[in-house]
User: Fold Claudin from Seriola lalandi dorsalis.
Amino acid sequence: MKEIAEVIALFLGFVGWIMIFISLHDQYWKESTTEGSVITTSTIYENLWMSCASDSTGIYNCRDFPSLFALPGYIQASRALMIAAIVFGTFGLTATLVGMQCSKIGGENYILKGRIAAIGGVFFLLQGICTMIAISWYAANITQEFFDQFYAGTKYEIGEGLYIGWSSAILAICGGSCLICACKVQTPNEKMPYRYQQSSRGHVLSTLATSQSAPSNYGRNAYV
Assistant:
């Protein structure tokens, strides 16, 4: 049962780790809205790395953000958190592969392997938390600008890249939680043998029986 839970947790963590790359590569983190526009000639969409524009003919043009320090603070923080999520996911996959009971890596010390697998679960949780914070922070700024009546710039809507990021975070958190819970279950191989010790009462009774069964050196006539 524990081996199945470890495999499921590894699968969820790996899929969540892959979806981080898909989310970062996706260009539609936010897309310009058509709310209140009668004629739309172009669409602007952005992610953490570039801004693109496409017209009604399907021709699009993308440009990278020119300066890191000129970007808003939430974009810089989202970049750092997503990169940290990739690093945590890499550590989580490595630790889980080493700590799985069905893996031959690390020998036959199942207690140590269980602790390593639990550390992998913690890394998966950190991966999911970092991804969730980055995606939610980015989405919060989109919705804040959208509902701000005094905002004069271009208003955007939430793009598909954010939904992929949210799915990645949920999978990583579920995988980490499943792995930590699975490592708390004690398998028969991890049970320490209990050394049975005979009670002192039994020892007294056996001594008493021995003394009663020992032959006497004096006969009954010796006391007459």
